[in-house]
Amino acid sequence: MSLAEGRALPRWRRPESMLILMAFGSMLAFSTWMAVAANFIIEVVHFDGSDNGWMHTVREIPGFLAFLAIFIFALIKEQTFGLISLFLLGFGSALTAEFPTLQGVLVVTFISSLGFHYFETVAQSLQLQWLPKAEAPRILGRIVSAASAGALVSYGSIVLAWEFFDLSYRTIYWASGGFCMAVALVCWLAYPQFRSDTVQRKDFVVKRRYWLYYALVFMAGARRQIFTVFAAFMMVELYGFHLHHVAGLMLLNYCVMIFAAPLIGRVIARRGERLALIVEYSGLLTVFLFYAGLYWFAWPWEAAAALYVVDHILFTMAFAQKTYFQKIADPEDQAPTAAVAFTINHIAAVFLPALLGYLWLVDPASVYSLAAAMACVSLFLATLVPRHPEKGRETRLARGPLAQPAE
């Protein structure tokens, strides 16, 4: 079914509705894993900072191998592959508490991560292909809002389950993973196969004119690891947060994001990607310096919690990278570049968590100082994004749109 035909279907069966439902299911499973992981690995498996770093290194390997999705796209349709990956994410998440050893956690983490990263690769590709450029920031804002709602359900359920029903880690993981698998099956049965307007290339696409996008993606991946790997871990290790405390803090994050993400999308549509990225990286620079201050000045847990919420909101603005690329790219480059970009995003992710895990054992504040330096580099790159990016004007260093050949 073509996209035009799909947009004429009832609202709940349209392409963007499928993207929203998949985002809800994937984020519910992933958020549960993230919320419970810090307490599970410390209280049950007895991880230290180094073990935690190795777990996240293993978790990022499938992201580094995302470029292999290009070969899979040649064999099966992207939409089908995305749903298979979504199901695998749920399956791996459900198994997490079944193997409470270092080796067991690493194996099931790899399985769930395989599903998550390939699903995200496909989702990004489909978003760029299915969403009109003029509407993309607003719809992406709604997709992020739906993902936040999935996370909200996850964390709300964890707080209730842990505080009032004393459910086990196993029950929590199976509930979230099972729901994610159910969403994949519903999408498989309820939605037709949508056909993109442009046939996607089935080979590697690395173009010189996309260099700024690649650089932004690389730095985002390196910087993101410090938030993903160490933020919740710090809350548990430094301040002794219990599971329902961590989940409650994340609950607050996503309550804010349900309303903030659509607003951010409208701002990007009106003011452009350059402003959004500059605000994001300026804010992250400040937040990471204050994170280091938690160790330098022994600030209370309230300061850490506030930084965590602000940090999360700023990271959400990163979908401006997607709409920036959509504006400068050739339409047939969307799918292969999504796979290549995911690999670029995870180059640093493969080795940084393990290395920073060792640095964490010596001086946790230095980890956040390094993150602040990364934010500085990203801020400089953001200043090179044009106010109105397009093909031929990918950076402020470019002279203008490419000349069209004579008829």
From TrEMBL:
Q: Which domain of life is it from?
A: Bacteria
Q: Does the keyword Hydrolase apply?
A: no
Identify the Gene3D superfamilies for this entry. MFS general substrate transporter like domains (1.20.1250.20)
Q: Where are the transmembrane segments?
A: 20-42, 63-89, 101-119, 139-165, 171-191, 211-236, 242-263, 275-299, 305-325, 337-361, 367-386
InterPro entries assigned to the protein according to its UniProt record, in alphabetical order: MFS, MFS_trans_sf
List keywords of the entry alphabetically.
Answer: Membrane, Transmembrane, Transmembrane helix
Kindly provide the name given to this protein in its UniProt entry: MFS transporter
Q: Which GO terms describe its molecular function?
A: transmembrane transporter activity
Q: Does the keyword Membrane apply?
A: yes
One Pfam family recorded for the sequence: MFS_1
